[in-house]
Amino acid sequence: MIMTMSIDGYVVGPVGMSTGGFPEPAELKRWKLDRISRAGTHIMGRVSYEEMGPYWQKSEDAYAGPMNDIPKVVFSKTLKEATWPESTTSRRRNHCLGRRGVRPVIVKGRAG
Question: What is the pLDDT of residue 34?
Fold first, then answer.
């Protein structure tokens, strides 16, 4: 599990994206990109989806490629349509993720 947080305890920046407070070392970025690129599915809730989708679709960061390419499942009772490429919505807790194979699953969420 990886979690970034600023020294004063904030998990997200002022515009909603994660912040670690310090530049990310190149070796750590390579390691994280390798892990993200192996993922078969990225599951998240509506709030994470609405924060991350617009950001990653416009980003030129090295993470943007895998973040946009990985199939995503958004669990939400209120989101009517998923427009971020490779995204689908599900209202069921038992949504079948097994069909994606045995590749790792990324889980993004927030408390509350």
Answer: 92
- Phi and psi angles of residue 89, each rounded to the nearest 5 degrees, phi first: -110, 155
Place of tokens 């599990």: 1
Structure tokens at 64: 């943007």
- 36-74: per-residue pLDDT in tens? 888 888 888 898 899 899 999 999 989 999 999 999 989
SS3 for 74? strand
> Do residues 51 and 44 make contact, with C-beta atoms less than 8 angstroms apart?
no
What are 15's two structure tokens?
């515009």
pTM more than 0.90? no
The per-residue pLDDT for range 86-109, each reduced to its tens digit, is 998 988 665 555 555 556 677 766
Buried b (16+ CB within 10 A) or exposed e, 26-50: eeeeeeeeeebeebebbbbeebbbb
